[in-house]
Design goal:
This protein has 2 domains: 281 residues, no CATH class; 48 residues, no CATH class. Helices cover 42% and strands 26% of the residues. The chain contains 11 helices and 14 strands. The strands form 4 sheets. Strands 1, 2, 3, 4, 7, 8, 9 and 10 form an 8-stranded mixed β-sheet that branches. α2 runs parallel beside α5, α4 runs antiparallel to α5 and α4 packs parallel to α6.
Length: 346
């Protein structure tokens, strides 16, 4: 009898100890799960300053979530969220699927940084598309994101979005436009899966919808070429993610006079506005054997080209600007100036 009582006491103490440990570490568990899930989803480092789980009230408060930039970009971050306030069904915290009955994001700061032929946003969206088409994705997402936990959420409210959009790939305040989006409401976020979805998948679904809201608000302010490129990237990513992600984008883009056509049709043939234009300007083209050969538009203007000399030897001759800027030789005479030299040095 004493042995039975002793065993019961030991069992109770073990349960109490486990409960205390969970209570003590639950904030760390939540913080780590969010960081891993978002980092895996977006392919860039994601950090959370603080996660506060209120077990009695069924709340989760996330402060200062920051999504870093892909390598090579200089803006402070891709996305920062000042505050995320979630209401959860408390008893689901101990199961495989956490039910979220309130999901509010407040104070989003988004930087869209352009480079010739690409941007920080398009780089992250490329990662999302690659993962969406990866057959090993489900198992990896469970392992990397939130320890296998899934979430169910019907409604997400996003408030106070500020997007800093570079309209030229040279950086600086002079080429940056600021777009304010007061509120975004997303319904039926995970209604396609009764068991919920991984944190990584939830992150992927939200980002294209936020970008669509920025495109919608930025029309008439941001140049069409920039918006078309961003819309094409969002459309390609949304198609890769599937119908549920498309539904969220359609909710945000409705009543925007053809915006959804740009999003879902603009990239069907791989045409993406600004990015493709800049590629034509700066990038080399593929030759017949797959090797890189002739350059873009600016190469014909700026870059010296090979020409065949009198004896068959190869020599470099300048592009269009060489005729304007570089001194020329006349037969048997000293070099004389180019076109501008003749204008400026008379």
């Amino acid at each position: 009898m004493r042995k039975l009582i002793r065993s019961a006491v030991v069992l109770v103490l073990a349960i109490v100890a486990a409960g205390i440990a969970f209570w003590y570490y639950v904030d760390v568990i939540a913080k780590t799960g969010i960081e891993k899930g978002a980092t895996y989803a977006l392919g860039v480092p994601t950090t959370v300053h603080k996660a506060d789980v209120g077990l009695w009230g069924g709340t989760l408060l996330i402060e200062n979530l920051t999504v870093g930039n892909p390598e090579g970009f200089k803006t402070p971050h891709l996305l920062a969220v000042k505050r995320s306030d979630l209401g959860v069904v408390t008893n689901t915290l101990f199961g495989d699927t956490i039910e979220v009955n309130r999901f509010e994001l407040d104070g989003l700061d988004l930087h869209i940084e352009q480079k010739p032929g690409t941007s920080n946003v398009s780089t992250v969206l490329d990662h999302i598309k690659a993962k969406a088409g990866d057959p090993s994705e489900p198992g990896e997402a469970e392992e990397e994101g939130a320890g296998g936990k899934k979430v169910k959420v019907d409604r997400i409210v996003v408030r106070n979005v500020t997007a800093h959009v570079q309209v030229l790939p040279i950086g600086g305040d002079a080429t940056t436009l600021n777009i304010e989006v007061p509120e975004i409401i997303l319904e039926d976020v995970t209604s396609d899966n009764a068991e919920g979805i991984a944190v990584a998948e939830l992150t992927r679904r939200i980002l294209p919808a936020i970008l669509t809201a920025v495109i919608k608000k930025g029309r008439g302010t941001i140049p069409d070429m920039d918006l078309d490129r961003l819309a094409a990237d969002v459309g390609e990513t949304t198609r890769a993610l599937g119908e549920q992600a498309r539904g969220l984008v359609e909710q945000v883009g409705k009543d925007a006079g053809g915006l959804l056509d740009k999003v879902f049709k603009g990239g069907e043939e791989g045409k993406g506005g600004l990015g493709d234009t800049l590629k034509d300007v700066f990038e080399k083209k593929d030759g017949k054997g797959g090797e890189k050969e002739g350059g873009g538009l600016l190469e014909g203007i700026l870059k010296p080209k090979e020409q065949e000399g009198e004896g068959g030897e190869k020599k470099e001759g300048g592009g269009l600007l060489e005729g304007i800027l570089k001194p020329k030789e006349k037969q048997g005479e000293e070099k004389e100036g180019g076109l501008l030299d003749g204008i400026l040095n008379k």
